[in-house]
Amino acid sequence: MSGMHDGHRDRVRDTFLQTGMDAMPSHNVLEMLLFYSVPRKDTNELAHELIDRFGSIDKVFDADYEQLINVPGVTKNTAVLLKMVPQLARYYMVYKTHHGEELSSVEKVGKYFVPLFVGETCEVLYVVFLDNKLQVVSCKKLASGTQDSVDLQIDRIIREAANSKAKRVIIAHNHPDGNPNPSSEDISLTIRLKKSLQLIDKELVDHIVVGDND
């Protein structure tokens, strides 16, 4: 029985290596991922069960650990592996992109920031510092899942800006409910931050709000 599964796993891996993940159905992608936490069982059935239960592969990855562990056949190792996927994707994009990248247009700014929020289910705030050519000097996550006041958020950004030689700043945060429209608090933060940065000879270039990661 294990030999049969081994042969199937080899075929799935070969398909991935030859055609890439884009050519694979979502249940095969999930099935292949599960190879690495379920060593000797057929993972195709479990992949179908997870997608049927949560609705789609992205919702499997977004499910809470407790929800995952309650699915028959999902071990602690499997639940942790599934929870790692969106965070690994975001971690990869943060490190792949960006130092020296020029953010000189709306399109470039959007392409830069959207991947940083992949898989985030709570509100997150990033600050990016730019040189005079609008090239990225550094990018830092300042807050995650916080209900901090506008004053506290501004204080954090100002401290980071004061310690940076970069003269220009872009901040970005997400709305987990998917609505990309700025709230009244977002607008207040933008106005007050712009004035505060001017006092230390820095410029707020933009404040980006990301909705459904698009």
Describe, in plain words, how this protein is organized in 3D.
The protein has 214 residues and is α+β, with helices and mostly antiparallel strands. It has 2 domains: 2-85, DNA polymerase, domain 1, CATH 1.10.150; 97-210, Cytidine Deaminase, domain 2, CATH 3.40.140. The protein is built from 9 helices and 4 strands, in the order αααααααββαβαβ. Strands 2-1-3-4 form a 4-stranded mixed beta sheet, covered by helices on one side. β3 (168-174), α9 (184-198) and β4 (203-210) form a beta-alpha-beta unit. It is elongated, with a radius of gyration of 21 Å. The N and C termini lie far apart (45 Å).
What's a concise summary of this model?
This protein has 214 residues and is of the alpha+beta class. It has 9 helices and 4 strands; from the N terminus they run αααααααββαβαβ.
Nearest-angstrom radius of gyration? 21 Å
User: What percent of the residues sit in helical stretches (DSSP H or I)?
Assistant: 40-55%
User: What is the count of distinct domains?
Assistant: 2
Which blocks of ≥5 consecutive residues have pLDDT under 50? none
Q: Going by CATH, what is the homologous superfamily of the largest domain?
A: Cytidine Deaminase, domain 2
Largest sheet, strands/sense/barrel: 4 strands, mixed
CATH topology of the largest domain, anyone? Cytidine Deaminase, domain 2
**Can you tell me the CATH class of the largest domain?**
Alpha Beta
- Judging by the overall fold, what is the CATH architecture of the largest domain? 3-Layer(aba) Sandwich
Q: Say how many strands there are.
A: 4
Number of helices: 9
Give the termini distance in whole angstroms. Answer: 45 Å
Question: What strand order characterises the main sheet?
Answer: 2-1-3-4
Rough outline: elongated
What portion of residues belong to β-strands? 5-15%
Order of helices and strands: HHHHHHHEEHEHE
